[in-house]
Structures are given as structure tokens and as C-alpha cells.
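sanity check this fold:
=====
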Amino acid sequence: MKFASEFRDPAAARALLSAIARKADEIGATRANPVHIMEICGGHTHSIFRYGLDKLIHEGVEFIHGPGCPVCVLPMARVDECVEIAETPGVIFTTFGDAMRVPGHRKSLLQAKSGGADIRMVYSPLDALELARRNPGREVVFFGLGFETTTPSTALSIQAAAREGLNNFSVFCNHITVPEPIRALLGDPDMMLDGFIGPGHVSMVIGIHPYDFIARDFGKPIVVAGFEPTDLLQSVLMVLTQVAEGRAAVENQYARVVPEHGNPVSLAAIADVYEARPSFEWRGLGEIDASGLRIRPRYAAFDAEEKFGIGYATGRRNVPEVEGCACGAVMIGKLKPTQCPQFGNGCTPEMPLGALMVSSEGACAAYWQYAGAREAMA
């Protein structure tokens, strides 16, 4: 296949849906509950609703939406620290656009900007690096946010700043990793999960073997998937086939893009610039060991936590969520977005209470955009 339209072919989708139905019926003959498949990536969540796969899929399969949106899992305390840095005199604070409206305990970055803070939306950390070159008398801070997908670009920017001696550039590092929260979810006895659809973009960087523990230690299948409808349907079928055969393995449906061992250049940059934090707080999951990255001491001159004296060293964590907001439970798949009492009432895209309604990859935003709002309002 060469064109996106081939991955959206109705006939191919119908054939896959029929195969899924047959396999789900086969599994259903031996169990009462549907097969619960968690898609880890927020991009997959949006694709599922955009193409109506949640409505088309056999009733013996249920999608569980996982913590696959890095903006959404960011705890409110870290947003508060972003605002604190941005409101420091002389700072130009740069961020991706979907982080602008994420609410902190006091305010969002957008509200801080409206109050006079110099906050600028960028498309890449390289944009922030260029701002530092053009503004040698200002401190330029980049909000380093995302899973392994965006981590290499931030690492390469820090390396470039070090080579050039751009000491007015720093990164507020909030990069996080995918495998550790999956381990935490699998360790929760209340979670009913039968398999996973693995993240495609993350796996382009890290490959497929970091997920080996899911099959080896927990006996759950995982299939790394692409983002088109036939990608996702084929991945569901591959998970179901493993369940029906009583086996668990890591499989790569997205082999046209994802190399088995990842991208060596990206992995080298990550290893050079970052090290694992002892723990990192996730919204909805709490503290998870070694799930976040921090900048290594040799690059401390470009670490905003060091430069501004904030972050985990200060002990400021666990800021409570807005009362009535169920972001945490939705984030880990224990509630559907429409089961949150604030969905469509106190929380809308225009006036969000939680990050899941703000981010382009948030589950609540997906529900709102693709018919979930109509269901909630019915």
C-alpha cells in the first residue's frame, strides 16, 4: 500500500470487521465478559472515534482508553511550575499549543499570557533555540513535554545549545516514558485488561522490545499499531487471535514504519542527555518509579529546574484535582468520559476543567468531537 486511501478502504474494513466478529464469537463461547483492549496512544483513541470503530466493532470487544496523552497525564503541580517560570521577569516561555489551556491549580499558561507573561507557542524546540539566539538578553525556556516521540528533538536541541554555548536557553523537562505506566496498570488488581494496542509513534523511537515484559511477565498480548482504520482493525484482530490461541506476544502491525530495535540516532541522543528520575507523578496514576526523565548533570546549565530552583527538589507534588473532575479515573480507563459528572456541564473545550478536554489527544476531547457530546446531551 502506498496511499492513505488504501488504509481507509471500506471493503477491507468490512472484511476485517467480519473476521473480528468471528474471532470474538469464538472467544465469547468460553467467557462471559467482552475482551478488553486498551489503546495506549491518544492518537489511536481519536482515530477510533473519528472512524466510528467503537460503534462498528463487535460487542465482544471493548476499547479501554489508556494514559496515552502526555499533556493529560501531567499533574497540576507541574503546570503551576510552568506558570511560575513564565511569570519570572525576563523569561520567554515556549510551549506546544495543546499545553496552553491545560489548567493548573492557579491558572493556565494561556491565562498567564493574558496577564502579561511572555509565552509563545512553538512547533519545535528548535524554534525556542532560535529565539534564544535572537534574544541573548532574555532567558528562553522550552516546555519539554511528551513521550519518547518528542524526547529526541528536545535532546538534540540541548546538545546544540551546549555546542553553541547558548546559556540563555533551558528546558523544563517533563518527558515521560510509556512502559512504566503500563506496568503500573497491570499491577492494579481492579483493572480488567486482556491486551493492548501499542503506540505507533513512540515505537518508531524505542522499537518493540521495551514491551516484552507485558507478554513475558503478565501474559498479555500487545500489538504495535498504525493510525488508519484498517491498521487499528487488523491490530484488534491480531490481539484477539492471540487471546483465542491462549498465547501472549509482542507483535508489530506497523512494521512499515516501526523498526524492531527503534531509531539508533534518537536513542543515542536520549541516552546522552537524559537519565531516569527515581519517580514521577502521573495524573490518575500517582508516583511511578523511573517513569520520567530528567536532564543529566553535565547538561545542568540547560535544566530549567536547576536554573529556576523549582521542580521535584522542592517537594511540591500532589496538588488536588478540581472537585468533581474525574480526569484521573478516565485517564486509566476506569471511567468513560461521559461518565464524568462534569463532562459537557462544567467541562467543555471552551471552559475545560481537566486536561483530557483540552489536549488534541485527550479522551474527553475525542468523545466531544466525535459524537460523544451528542450522546451525553441526549
Remarks:
- The mean pLDDT is 89.
- The domain at 76-178+261-314 is CATH 3.40.50.11740 (Rossmann fold).
- The longest helix spans residues 10-28.
